Amino acid sequence: MRKLINTESFIFHFFWLTLLAAGSLFIMISCENENLEIQQNFPFEVKVLPVREDIAFGQTTAIKMKIVRSGIYSGTHYYIRYFQYDGFGILKYKHGLFEFKPNDVYDLPEGEEEEIALYYTSKSAVSQSFDIWISDNFGNEKQLSFKFNHVD
After folding, report:
1. Number of Cβ atoms within 10 Å of the Cβ of 14
2. Is residue 103 part of a domain?
3. How many domains does the chain have?
4. Which residue segment(s) compose the domain that 121 sits in?
């Protein structure tokens, strides 16, 4: 007499159908959240090239830095501000194209965070100190401190 169901074939098909059903169930459960979560907030570091320590009245020195991001999100905007608490001088952006006012916040142009070139000109005959803050629109902020000794 002929078997109506081949036992080996039945077990084989049952195993694959069970595996397929379990995989489908896992996919449906893992996709329960309808909103795809996209990371937008990426912390950053600011790398500064070496800066001279001494400066004379009227002398200009370059401060070059770049933002090193831990990830890239196209909606990130960077801002810069500075405050001078010792001495007096002028901080300019990119060869004097723009002069910063103390404690005002300025947008860094999109794509310019790779190389930020600032130029500080001494306007006093004493040591000078100031801080630069770079922040993003997610609240991440880095403070950089600079001090120049006056030389004749």
Report:
1. 10
2. yes
3. 1
4. 44-150
Decide if 13 is inside a domain: no
Handedness of CA 102, 104, 109, 115 (dihedral sign): positive
Strand-pair category, 54-55 with 78-86: unpaired
Q: Is residue 52 part of a domain?
A: yes
Tell me the C-alpha distance between 81 and 91, whole Å: 10
Listing DSSP states for 82-127 in one string gives EEEEES-EEEEETTTTEEPPTT--EEPPTTGGGSEEEEEEE-SSS-
Strand order across the 141-150 sheet: 54-55, 141-150, 128-136, 78-86, 106-107
pLDDT in tens, 87-137: 999 999 886 678 999 999 998 887 776 789 999 999 999 999 999 999 988
What would the mean pLDDT of 142-149 be, rounded to a whole number? 95
Short-list 82, 85, 81, CA closest to 124: 85
- Give me the CATH number covering residue 104: 2.60.40.2410
pLDDT of residue 37: 62
Question: pLDDT-derived band of residue 16, with 50, 70 and 90 as boundaries?
Answer: confident
Residue 104 inside a domain? The answer is yes
Q: How confident is the model at residue 12 (pLDDT cuts 50, 70, 90)?
A: confident
